[in-house]
Amino acid sequence: MLDDDPLTRIGHTSLDDTGVTAVVAPHEAGMVAAVDVRGGGPGTRETDLLEPHNTVERVHAILLCGGSAFGLAAADGAMQELERRGWGFPVFGEGAPGPRVPIVPAAVIFDLVVGDPSHRPGPEDGARAVAAAFETPSSETGSVGAGCGATAGVLRGGFGRARVETDGYSVEANVVANPVGSVVDARTGLLFGDPDQPAVDLKRFTQLQRPTPKLNTTIGVIATDAPLTKAQLKRVAMTGHDGIARAVRPAHSPLDGDTLCAVSTAAPGEQPVTDVETLGRFGEAAAQAVQAAIVDAVVHATGAFGVSAWEDIAR
């Protein structure tokens, strides 16, 4: 959980067994954004436009949703709420009257085996999450927003956040931890992502059963206030996946849809970072932040729907 002011606005719609988390830009100009997908079963919307060779540079929000592919409908409501607030790409040019088109990529987790499988987020829930990001930004982590129905192997997953400082800038990860793989080392009982946390009771841990079928996904947004280009952010997103691999075993399975976006919240016009070694440190900071955010999600999740939380079996 972050104590400092976050780089982005975070809003949640928590629906008990599913939900939506909106990561909204800190200013109307939006955020430069890129994406990297590593899982074998992704569920995404408008992520192709984030590739460095494509035209759109900035997004206004990114939605993280439960509900599997059904949950992508929440992005419709997110767009409508941003349009209502006057945010979006000006069709006829900046300052000219006419429609604005908010750019809102989205990614989903599979949580249909938790709670009511017919209960999925819709457009109204996406709109509520965006409105919450503007009106009551949240610092809460655990079983909130898109993390409400998350599982992490045999344990509860959730929504987590973490920040790493490097070269005078911040790198912040906002992650919905919902992996097929385990976050706990079955030999030691320690979290892969943070062995300094208490060990779980191994006897109880090895008796736990995970929901079936084994379909999951870890998704998130890595934000930095460093002025980076789309191509540079693509590298940050790629390296950020190392954080999933450090905290989850195995990671990036054919049954996961692991997707990480990376965004720069720097104001338009700032000169991009050009030093390659500095960019490398941003990538490592992203991996560290993602790893810590997954731990944050798991240790703050609460047990529900017959799935135990880490805190229930930690010694």
TrEMBL record:
It comes from the Bacteria. Gene3D superfamilies: L-amino peptidase D-ALA esterase/amidase. InterPro entries: ArgJ-like_dom_sf (IPR016117), Peptidase_S58_DmpA (IPR005321). CDD domains: nylC_like. Signal peptide: none annotated. GO terms for molecular function: aminopeptidase activity. Belongs to the peptidase S58 family. This is P1 family peptidase. The lineage of its organism: Bacteria, Bacillati, Actinomycetota, Actinomycetes, Mycobacteriales.
